[in-house]
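Researcher: Here's my situation. A collaborator sent me these components and asked whether they could plausibly form a single complex. I don't have experimental data yet, so a predicted model of the whole assembly would be a useful starting point for our discussion.
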Amino acid sequence: MDQVEKIFETRELNVNMGPQHPATHGVLRLVLDLDGETVVNVTPYVGYLHRGIEKLGESLSYFQALPLTDRMDYVSAMSNNIGYVVAVEKLFGIEAPERAKFIRTMVGEMSRISNHLLWLATHALDIGAMTVFLYCFREREWILELFEKICGARLTVTYPRIGGVRNDITQEFLESLWKFTEEFPSRILEYETLIDQNRMWLKRTIGIGVISAEEAVNWGLTGPTLRGSGVPYDVRKFTPYDAYDRVEFDVPVGTEGDTYDRYRCRMIEMRQSNNIVRQCIEKLPPGPIMADAPKFTLHPKDAMFPITHPTKEHAFYIDEKVCKGCGMCLRACPVKAITGEKKKPHKIDQAICLQCANCLAVCKFKALKIVPGGKGLSEDKLKELAQAPLPEEITKAKEHLVEHFTFIKRGPRAPEGDLYVATEVPKGELGFYFVSDGSGKPYRMRVRAPSFIHAGVLPRLCVGHLVADVIANIGTIDIVLGECDR
Amino acid sequence: MTFKKFIKTVTFIEILKGMALTLSRFFSRSVTIQYPDERRPIAPGFRGQHALAKHPQTGEAKCVGCGLCATICPSQCIHVFREKGKVSRYEIEVLRCIYCGFCVEACPYGAVVLTENYEYSDYSKENLYMTKEKLLSNWDKYMPGNKGEEYFKRFWRPMSGDFETPSQQPMFRGKRS
Amino acid sequence: MTPDTFIKFGIDVLIIVIKIAVVLVIGLLHVAYATYFERKVIGHMQVRLGPMRVGPHGLLQPFADGIKLFFKEDLIPEKADKVVFYLAPVIFMASAMVNLAFIPFSHNFIIADINIGLLFIFAIAGIGVYGIFISGWASNSKYAFIGGLRSSAQVISYEIAMGFSLVGVMIMAGSLNLTEIVRAQENSIFGMYAIPQIVGFVIFVIAAVAETNRTPFDLPEAESELVAGYFVEYTGFRFALFFLGEYIAMFIMASLCTVCFLGGWTLPWYVLKVLPFLQHVPGIVWFLIKVYAFIFFYYWIRATVPRYRYDQLMSIGWKILIPVALANILVTGLVKILL
Ligand code: SF4
Ligand code: SF4
Ligand code: SF4
Ligand code: SF4
């Protein structure tokens, strides 16, 4: 025997699973060491979908960074959006109005359903149940259509806003969502008919990827992946955000901590989410959908109408007496219509001016005047008109416009400090950690992505099982590589 | 193994149930939409390709060239070039756009909108580089009549109504369970 | 030898050649439309439509697929064992095709009516696994290798169960000749052996699914684990050969089931008694209906259930199917002796 081993070296079969592999949910790469069919070692490699979202977040204003979160966990973009805005609202110290909170809870739970549907679909497909996949997609499509109805996008929704939501929901949407919630439980039964008691499903999931409660906590697992092991930890219950303290729901937990328990947890969670959506619809209060926090939200468009409406032909004029010659307007003007030397009164060349109001927004000395209906008038005439007091509505509009310009150019200013805010996304605990230096952009934005942490536990779950169980384990921890790699 | 369980095992009851379901679905209507022949309805306010709004009276572009859209755009794909008193070029790199709709929200003049057009795939990059002319013609194509006005009313947000309680708000009117 | 016998021999050969041609054409057309049928059936079960683009209701889809596969680039992995790599799909496909010769489609339509037809089919089907195994080996790819290993283990173990499940039929019919088996069923009380031999029938069905590598026993292919298993490195026409082979093997299994358990081209006497006009329908129609019902069942199963794991599959084969099949043989034998 020794002789043989000397001549023929024996070692494990080294198999590269991914980054292109149908079952690795994107671009996860696992290097498996196989002894026959038994897995002796697993090394996950992540980073194939790295787009530097954390770094990008530091170069965009708090308002602009929102679409980045869509692209982390694109399967449940809505929940990620909500996680982000909840965190930023905490940082700013503002609070969304009740109605917005209920809407956000509602769409958040819809997103949980859609995420769990996709999870079930792919998990079942990996284990070979092809039909469940398409049945799940049928319902997911329904939810995506509902998303489209509220915000115009199906996947990357960018619907919540700091301080509320983008737009109010419509009656039609409410009704179709209600119809969905009435229909959905029977659809869940359909999936369960196919797999819940199926002997093959049971054989493939019971006792696979077992992890004890203590170990699961130590590995940092969250969400249903943790709850499958019997730890009833749910951010929605422990530190309720949005309207979660006003709706009733249970947190399902498993007992064994195996793949089947995690599957059961998610199935029950879908039903719970469905209930939460129904409660939100019923309890939806009337009221505003954006917080009244002018420094942190966009400004109402109609308030600026007296200046910005296309029928208004205003001219902009610099009052020579007030102008200090600071040059701010000169730098802000996109067409270089303003001329003037430093410390001397500046002047607008009306022939070049676009009437875009950039200069208006930067002048700190109120030297810039709006001349209502002054477009095309001569210099002298403008000079004369500029002295006249402005109507009330234009003054108001001017205030809004100035703040709107400042908001967009600099971003909402956050107070200095740092904070960590966690929300419960379908995959687990999504945390945002901000370090703010008081500017319009975060100094550091760190995302605690559940997928990343769950991907780390794969070796622990897979070693000792067979190749086929690796697939089941990838499915059961429910990862999305977009979020894992960021 | 109890007797009941044994019976369940040898009769394949759970598999038969599943098969009954798939068979019943075999005879039910399929949900497929034959895409180029049929299209699913697009919800109003869909965030598709851009268009530059035209002035309702003069028919010229409403855009004054303030550049706020270019500033807010998270993917920096809007380029505004001005020349003496007018916007000479207004270009959007469609391939970089992520359709977040921030440009619409940022524009104080209501000059840019997202239309319902999602079928703009092409073989050349030039065709996907939207110039001012193409954007203006998009307006005629996808926002005819007062569709544009409707769009602004519903999807150009926020409006003052969002900060207060409007009189007519969608509420649940069905029966409460 | 007189010229008379010579001519007779010539005519015999001619008839056989024609029969072969007919069977081959039917076989290949069957494969083409079995794929179409499968996609449609599974599609509708999954609330989809299946192929719809090529021709009305996608009826020309199989030809489009065939043409596409034919013109596709033929890739061979660099370090593949070339000769073996070329040979594998041919072995796989040929072994499946040869079996068509022993299937009695009707009481007078069989290419080779030999006495040990049943055994022969087993023997030839057993050769098919070599095609799978050596393709896995020759591809010089780990996925293909694992797929090949799984497959050979699987086919070998399920062949035993399948053989045992058919022993009951042999005992009841007292023959290994497939035509004889059908005749024996025709004259039996139940009209088909699926009823008295229900245990054997169930085992046969399970083993047949496993033998042809179909869900839930499609581990060698397991697209989510091994991507495509043993033929992962095959492209173009070579891939098509595997594909053809698989569907012909399915057809063989379905025919075998029809012949041994469902009464072949005959109808049970009680059905004919109630609906006497049915005896005017040619036997081949019943045969094909039964075969396609069985194939539909294959698809139906595929649309419903998940996949087993490799070790579970083996333990089902060895620990459940084979003992139960043995018990079935025992009981059948006892009953036969006692009656
Ligand atoms: S309104 Fe615009 S274009 Fe005119 S001067 Fe001011 S910044 Fe320049
Ligand atoms: S910013 Fe105001 S004060 Fe400064 S140069 Fe311009 S108009 Fe004068
Ligand atoms: S939709 Fe978003 S990404 Fe596209 S141009 Fe507008 S702001 Fe930029
Ligand atoms: S589209 Fe609107 S925001 Fe953009 S440059 Fe034109 S006016 Fe300004």
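Model: Some features of this prediction you could bring to your collaborator: Chain B touches chain A through 64 residues (CB under 8 Å). The radius of gyration of chain B is 25 Å.
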